[in-house]
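Hi again,

Forgot to attach this to my earlier email, sorry! This is the prediction with molybdate ion bound. I've pasted everything inline since the attachment limit keeps bouncing my files.
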Amino acid sequence: MSLLAVEAAYRRVLAGAEPVARTERLPLREARGRVLADDLRSRRTQPGFDASAMDGYAVRARDAVTGAELAIVGEAAAGHGWAGSVGPGEALRIFTGAPVPEGADAVLIQEDTERLAGSARIKVTDAATAGDHIRRAGVDFAEGGLLCPAGTVLSAGAIALAASGDHSHLTVRARPRIAILATGDELVLPGEPIGPHQIVASNTFGLAALAEQSGGTVLDCGIAADDEAEIGARFDEALQAGADVFVTIGGASVGDHDLVGKVFEAKGVELDFWKVAMRPGKPFMAGRKGPMRIAGLPGNPASSLVAATLFLAPLIRRLSGLPDRPLYREGVLADAMPANGPRANFVRAIVAGETEGRPRLTALGKQDSSLLSVYARADALLMRPVNAAPARAGEPCLYVPLD
Ligand SMILES: Nc1nc2c(c(=O)[nH]1)N[C@H]1C(S)=C(S)[C@@H](COP(=O)(O)OP(=O)(O)OC[C@H]3O[C@@H](n4cnc5c(N)ncnc54)[C@H](O)[C@@H]3O)O[C@H]1N2
Ligand code: MOO
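Structure tokens for the complex follow:
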């Protein structure tokens, strides 16, 4: 099988991927960052009454001319309206959020009045105009009106709006279920006893974080030995559990113990592609088995995280109903870069400072695909295109942010 270009692999992974159809109903406090499943309409009008926007006096604007004296007839505070009607020559003491009484058509802020000593009267020092400082009923939204369309990602503002529209719960898209299986006889979990030729399985944890950050929920399938029957059993379990994506780690290359491709074949997976023209992350597999998508990641830690960042995270975002992001952003090179070979090189890099408004990228020193100490320091993958000529410092480049 020949190597597929990164951009083509990205398009093929996303082709036909739709948000999962399942929904769930959540209390507002749990809805942050989730995607609204249906149009959200208001259950009330806001404000439900004409409300004062300031502390002062509710008046008839035609009476509240500069120099006029007005009699204070009562008081209205937020939550406590005043039942009467403001008549000629009268003013109602009013506070922010209180309902504007009948008869009044303006609120005079208290800074534009003088309280006359020893009497329940004020003098107007700056005239009012009709409509001043009144928030009309329904100025924010009306009962039955659209608050947020389906597909809205629930931000702090959207959640506050939903609360104001009197919704205690929201129907959101369910998170896609991402099953993650690590493979390899050499792997043990962090904290478990470890043999002399074993290593700690790290990839599951990084990938689970990435999957959750992208809107998914993780089904941890643990570690399978390099054994076709065992990998196959975990595959069946994931399918039965209704996984939307089955992610494998390791065993994706060509060695005698790289069994994942064989298991996929035996299970009738329709393989879309295997191997992408990129470094690290070349032995990436994509396919599907019925409703379950398959992402076979390479075992090397940086390889699995790079391939997952480029292909798996955008897929999970799409299945979650989150908006697509562009594959690359534009930056500039902080330093000269050597020529590149036939695989796009995703160089672990740091974004520091800007040149002419574009982020400046500095490649980190060591780039071996086993190095998590380097990967963890990086905040971007600087993309060196296939067969790129040497580049000078200050030249434009493309990169993928790591957040
Ligand atoms: N003859 C060839 N050999 C290799 C090729 C090739 O084209 N021809 N490709 C190389 C490339 S590129 C990569 S990337 C790796 C990927 O190999 P696999 O996906 O088969 O991964 P494994 O062999 O299972 O493991 C590689 C490496 O990663 C460690 N590993 C595996 N799983 C985990 C985990 N969950 N957490 C942490 N580390 C893990 C494993 O112990 C190995 O050290 O193949 C090259 N070989
Ligand atoms: O593609 Mo491998 O991921 O070069 O190390």
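The mean pLDDT is 97. The two ends are 33 Å apart (CA to CA).

That should be everything now.

G.
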